[in-house]
């Protein structure tokens, strides 16, 4: 039985790059949802801060997360975001209740 791991990734675009970052992140959503270990993958845009984006993802364990990180669309997203992200925080969360 696999454990579901929730990933929350918070990204802040450099000044002036929010629209470009939004497009790059949006391109990763559908291919990520199609991955075998993906149980949920939603991109959010902060209403109070146009430069902040939040992914809330659910994966069927660490193997699925590692496979996602190696996926061509994830690698392409990382390259496309080079120089466009001012801050990045990624949390891997286990449900406790």
UniProtKB/TrEMBL annotation:
Q: Which GO terms describe its cellular component?
A: cytosol
What InterPro entries would the database entry show? ABM_dom, AI-2_Isomerase_LsrG, Dimeric_a/b-barrel
The record's listing under Gene3D superfamilies reads: 3.30.70.100
Q: State the UniProt keywords alphabetically.
A: Monooxygenase, Oxidoreductase
Q: Which GO terms describe its molecular function?
A: monooxygenase activity
Q: Which domain of life is it from?
A: Bacteria
Task: Note whether Oxidoreductase occurs among the keywords.
Answer: yes
Domain ABM: residue ranges: 5-93
Pfam families for this protein: ABM
Give the matching PANTHER family.
ABM DOMAIN-CONTAINING PROTEIN, QUINOL MONOOXYGENASE YGIN-RELATED
Its name, as the record gives it, is: Antibiotic biosynthesis monooxygenase
Q: Which organism is it from?
A: Halopseudomonas oceani
């Amino acid at each position: 039985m696999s454990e579901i791991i929730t990933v929350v990734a918070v990204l802040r675009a450099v000044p002036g790059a929010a629209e470009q970052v939004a497009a790059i992140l949006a391109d990763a959503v559908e291919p990520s949802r199609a991955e075998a270990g993906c149980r949920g993958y939603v991109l959010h845009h902060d209403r109070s801060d146009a430069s902040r984006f939040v992914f809330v993802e659910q994966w069927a364990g660490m193997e699925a997360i590692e496979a996602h990180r190696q996926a061509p669309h994830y690698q392409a997203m990382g390259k496309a975001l080079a120089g466009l992200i001012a801050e990045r925080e990624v949390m891997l969360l286990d449900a406790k209740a």
